[in-house]
Structure formats: structure tokens, C-alpha cells
Amino acid sequence: MSRAPHFLGIGVQKAATSWLWEALRLHPDVWMPPRKELHYFDRATRYPSPSHLASDSRWRRATSDAPEDCRLRQFFRDEFRAAVDRRDWPSARWTLRYFWGGRSDAWYRSLFAPAKGRVAGEITPAYSILDDADVARAAAISPSVKVLVLLRDPIERAWSHAKFAASLHGSLYEVPDLSSEESIVRFMDSPVQTMRGDYVRMFETWTRHLPAERFWIGYQDDVEARPDDVLRGAFEHLGVAADRAVRGNRGERVNRSAERPMPDAVRRHLASRYLPELRRLAALPIIAARPGREHVATWIRRAESAAGDQG
Q1: What is the model's pLDDT at position 257?
Q2: Is residue 114 a part of any domain in this protein?
Q3: What's the whole-number mean pLDDT along residues 91-101?
Q4: Structural domain boundaries enclosing 114
Q5: Is the pLDDT of residue 101 over 60?
Q6: Over the stretch 246-303, which tens digit does the pLDDT of each residue have?
Q7: Which CATH number covers residue 20?
Q8: Is residue 299 part of a domain?
Q9: Maximum separation of any 2 CA atoms in the chain, in Å
Q10: Number of structural domains the chain divides into
Q11: How many other CB atoms sit within 10 Å of the CB of residue 90?
């Protein structure tokens, strides 16, 4: 078996990636780290949402007031305490290594050592916004790596993320006021949100470094309608038993956003913004030649209706 990680889940955010992570953890032939979202490849502060792994210095991690270091310490306290409370000593040791170990490619690969022969990987939706340099690093660390992608209508994804961010009450860098259409639009037009919804950029960047056949693409629409088929497709792509493992292995939907209708003005704004990108997405060979392309066609029709643009 090639060196781990054998697969990376690169997003997209608010498209059932937590559901997929939970389901993969239950598969007997798959090993996942104790935490979702390792954030190794998006560590650079040049990204609009700097990772809690950004600091190389242990001293800075322990003492800095930078947002990423404060988040690291909070994550560590919560996750280490939870592992100790469960008397889960392997997870406690892994958590110490993850938060306080040296930052290097060798250190990153060591995070998958507990896999012991199983297929191992991680899911970090922020990898969808990586630039060429960091995608090249990911491909170099594991030259045969496979990629899992879950897609969602970018208009619905943006609204779901806005609701989720608002529920966190300031623990993110940007939090929209859902009572203000201007605040919602400003949040959705911020660089981090714009990049999260740019599926064309994601596929173009990643396929410059990895062949298209390495990519499995699932759709949040199918997670809702036929979750077994989605899991079967992901398992088959990873080369692990599918039919045997799907039964009773659907996982539970987590991180659901609260039910709240999208304001019409916000929908019109997003439809106008995303419609050209959706048309470009539909034309990409990695989408156009595969099952699921009908979902993108549906997203385009909905956007055309909302924007009053029939093309």
C-alpha cells in the first residue's frame, strides 16, 4: 500500500463533508484521524481564512494572541480533555502530536501511522481554496492520492454557510447579521466565501497536478435522496468493500444549519453572481462526462429563474 494519506477530502464546505467523514470512520477498512479538518495544506496566512496550524514555533502557539493561535489552544483543550474523559489514550496521544508536534511533511505523514494497513485519509474542506503551490505539495507528499469532492448548489451552500456562521456568535472572523440583507451580501462577497464557492477554480487547480480519474465527485442532492449510493461510490473509489459496509453505515447528518428562508434579494444577488460560473462548471470535462451532471443543470435552471436570465 502506498504511503498515507491515501485520500484527501477537499470539500466543499456545507455540502455534507461531516456526514461523509463520520461514515468513513465507521468503515472497518478505513482509518480517519480523531478530528476532521487537519488544515495542513492551507496553513499559509495568505489564505483568507488562516489555519490554526499557521505558527511553526511552539512558543508562539502557546503564548501568541493571534487568532489562529488562540483557536489552536482552545481546540487542543477541548479535544484533549474529551479524549482523556473517554480514556481514549490513542486519541489523546494523537492530539498531543497534532497540536504540539513539529510542522513538516514527515510530521504530517506520521499523523496517519495508526492506520496500520488500512486506507487512511482526511477531510478538510478548506483544501478547496488551495493555490497551485499547495496542491503541488499535497500531490508530492502522496503521489497516488485520491480525492473526494462533495458539491452543492453554490447558492444554497453560501446561504447555509451564512446561517452556520451567524450561529457561532463571533467565533469566526466574519459573522453576518441575518436581519440585514446588506450584511448577508457583504459576508457572501467576502474573499473567503467567494473562493469557497468557486468550484471551477478548485477543479482547474487540482487537475493541473492530479489526473481527473483520481477524483470522486458526489452531490449533496444525492446525500439527501439516496445516501447509500453516495457511500457506495465513495467506498468503491477508495478501493474498499462497498456493499458490505454501506449497510448500517450511513452516519448521521451533522452541522445542519437552522431552517430559515433565504431573502429574495440575497437569492437574486447570488444567482446573478454564480450563474456564469455554473455555466463554466457544467462545461468542465470532469463534470460534463460524469454522472451527476444533471444536478449542475438543475442549479443553472434555478439560478436563471432567480436572476431572470434565460441565457
Answers
A1: 57
A2: yes
A3: 97
A4: 7-53+103-307
A5: yes
A6: 655 555 555 555 578 889 999 999 999 999 999 999 999 999 999 999 999 999 999 9
A7: 3.40.50.300
A8: yes
A9: 59
A10: 1
A11: 10
